[in-house]
Design goal:
Chain lengths: 488, 488
């Protein structure tokens, strides 16, 4: 035992002994710049003088935090589910009550406080399947292929966990877009997978080019076993909406190259640009015929956090799996059972999202009015964002066709690049930190999402209320001009 | 590229290509027997004749599913939080409204639909810290050491993820009790850690013996690097409550052997036996003086799912970390930020659990009445369970001092053991399957939790309502006698 004697005072868990994969994890959306924003807020409260009076957080797609209002019907049903005595309250319309009763009847013991089955409440999975069928114009969806999740992130990480195996050159490689949503790179780092970058084409409105997919795949095959292709559509952080043709090409590519497809479709209602339309990977896959629909393995993801509802706090979501090996499916179900079940309030909310009021029901008009208003506001803000930013010399942004973000390219003068390097910072981190300190605006540097070498960007949400968003954009303009002048 | 050509028709994700660690995961609480129970329920609905009319599920600690009622105050506050228009509803007492307002003010944008900070809402963490201080008689708790979690399971897996590293003989070994709650073995399998079993002493009411810890540790050091010691107190599945002395001995052992302590204390209010009392590891650690309290690394876990509230569906919980290396703590916070935040409804509920109505508030009396009733019922059922089971020749059960389970030892005749082996089943699985098919009672075989070789057990919850629990126990008695006779 002598060689195992404890060293008194030495900790068990240190930077040296900890899981080294965790050390490699990065998640810029909540990274150092956001922590500094929180500090500045405390300083403002303590009366520290700043050139601004509040920090505006445009770093994360957190709708309600930016003032977006919840959908009344959803919240009414959830309130009744939580406290069923409200069933006799006259303030609630009949459809709210009947919907609440329907959900409660599907919960063990009639309570949201019970565990659900690990895959999620059966009724909710049935409603999700019917929603997918309506959305995809009749293409069949099987509730047995639906897994409710703790937000889309949970589903994505779970599927990646299933897929990552092998060592050395047979280690699973996962293709992700650059720029990407950093959940992907973080999960791959944690799971020790090989990240394979394919670059979106900024010059062509962040579109996806099959030639680039091929290039990335061919190169990756020299050192790992590429097995998975991840797509985010509509795009985060880039806001593009993929054409039907592009999706078809991607599916054909995946089929030819034997890749498992993961389609992150959490922004499926967030499409603003004329001529753009959301097509689900599932629908296109089936429209391509049985050669594809009977074979290509696909997992697609949705969430209660985005679209018009923006209910991030509930951590609701689902994934639909297709063509999964039946034995593997048993393993997947077993894996999710260890965490017991996704939050039942999130499952109940997911049910309402996929099964909103119908035209003959009393809550319908208010529901449609609220949904239309929120989506129209977002469309207006998407357009305002690209318009104002494109007026600034040195900033160029693609149209925000969908999702909730712009990812403009910013020109950073060589002197500023040098100054950043002296600080040991990425140039766009240097830029964003200054923007935060001088203007109180919290954005995320492009380096947190990945970008072509020598290009710089930031991600900004379009979520602040219109009047505030305009101020933000004008402040960015003012800052950018000053910054450029300072470093020329 | 020739060696990478896809094999048409072959799936990407198969039993051979999938994550091999996931294959090793087992979670008996929701294993094959529970799936069979669900099938039987469907068969009953379809009119298939059975020797029973309903399946009684005593396999999982799912309180509300078994008819336990939620705490009115908790549900009222949550309903108002979800639908703040209810603030003007006269049915709600003032303390409900003020509590809801307090929680909403702590949420970004005043909505439960916003993300919280990744560590959890600051106000809730403050309330948790104050709760711990009251519980532990004034020992200080720092809100910065509190992490809100998605149920206790999430916290436990997160800490294990941090702790598991190294390869071969330097791979992290984690000591867990046998019998154990299978979340532990499942998480260790998934993370590829080395599981180190230490056996609880069934003859001494499932107590923990330091000699046995030493034996297990010494043996494990020959092939791995033991770094973590996990304790469940009150015990799951074994229902024992550890004495203060035992906890002190465990802490001393961990300090001497340089082990990171993980204390699963989700049943802290579930203590029924005379002379038993819950002592938190944190409190005992501080009472042992600065030599220990300034050095031993501890993570302890709590949940909204158990105790008197039993709100499993909300997936609420917290962990408190102590003496964590500050750099490691930064890594932990980064890791949890990737999943954005725990469900905010679960966080709000956790806040109410740690901060229930006070004596001068209008909801106090009802709250105390409901809590007392639930705990008294559980105590009554704990006692009834051990009493009836111990009447059966061939079943012997320790007192259910705490938690929600009994783990009786069952005598399985050699002929039944042979019959099970012929079926390729563990003898206690064979027993439980027969019990399910013949009596409609769903329990979990002891083999799913671990037990000494040649001994057999099952885990049963004490959660069914008294009159039903009595039926369950009588049916087990009847079944056991018949089974024993059949196989003698």
């Amino acid at each position: 035992m002598a060689d195992h004697v404890a060293v008194p005072g030495k900790k068990v868990l240190t930077m040296d002994t900890m899981n080294q994969n965790v050390k490699k994890v990065e998640y810029a959306v909540r990274g150092p710049i956001v922590q500094r924003a929180a500090q500045i807020e405390v300083e403002l409260q303590q009366g520290v003088k700043k050139p601004f009076t509040e920090v505006i957080r445009a770093n994360i797609g957190d709708c309600h935090a930016m003032g977006q209002k919840p959908i009344t019907f959803f919240r009414q049903v959830l309130a009744v589910c939580l406290y069923p005595d409200l069933l006799d309250d006259n303030r609630f319309p009949e459809d709210v009550k009947s919907r609440a009763q329907r959900i409660l009847q599907a919960c063990s013991g009639g309570s949201l406080g019970s565990y659900s089955s690990s895959q999620g409440i059966e009724l909710v999975r049935q409603d999700v399947a019917r929603f997918i069928e309506r959305r995809d114009r009749g293409i069949r969806s099987d509730p047995e292929n639906i897994y409710l999740t703790t937000g889309a992130s949970d589903g994505i990480v779970t599927m990646l966990k299933m897929l990552i195996s092998g060592e050395g050159s047979s280690r699973t490689g996962v293709m992700i877009s650059i720029p990407q949503y950093p959940l992907y790179s973080a999960a791959l780092a944690e799971l020790g997978a090989v990240q394979i970058n394919y670059y979106l084409d900024e010059e062509a409105c962040w579109s996806l080019d099959i030639g680039e997919l091929k290039r990335a795949l061919t190169q990756a095959r020299k050192h790992c076993a590429p097995r998975v292709l991840c797509i985010i559509n509509p795009g985060n952080p880039t806001g593009q909406v993929q054409s039907r043709q592009c999706i078809e090409d991607v599916i054909r590519f995946a089929a030819e190259e034997n890749l498992f497809l993961m389609a992150d479709e959490v922004y499926q209602d967030n499409v603003y640009a004329d001529g753009c339309e959301f097509h689900s990977f599932k629908k296109v896959l089936f429209e391509m015929g049985p050669e594809y629909s009977s074979r290509v393995e696909l997992a697609s993801f949705h969430s209660t956090s985005k679209c018009y509802m923006g209910e991030c706090g509930f951590r609701g979501g689902y994934m639909e799996v297709l063509n999964l090996d039946p034995e593997v499916k048993v393993q997947l179900t077993k894996l999710v059972s260890v965490r017991l079940c996704p939050p039942v309030t999130g499952q109940a909310l997911m049910d309402l999202v996929v099964n909103p009021p119908e035209p003959h029901e009393p809550s319908y008009q208010t529901f449609v009015k609220e949904r239309t208003h929120t989506l129209a506001e977002l469309a207006k803000k998407a357009s305002m964002t690209q318009q104002i930013l494109n007026q600034v010399p040195g900033i160029r942004c693609n149209p925000v066709q969908g999702a909730m973000y712009t990812f403009p390219r910013i020109h950073i003068p060589p002197k500023a690049v040098s100054a950043a390097q002296e600080n040991g910072q990425a140039p766009d981190m240097f830029y964003c930190i200054k923007l935060l300190e001088e203007m109180g605006i919290c954005l995320v540097p492009g380096s947190g999402f990945g970008q072509k070498d020598g290009t710089y960007h930031f991600r900004m949400t379009i979520l602040p209320p219109s009047h505030k968003l305009e101020v933000v954009l004008e402040k960015i303009k003012e800052f950018h001009l000053r910054f450029t002048q300072q470093y020329s």
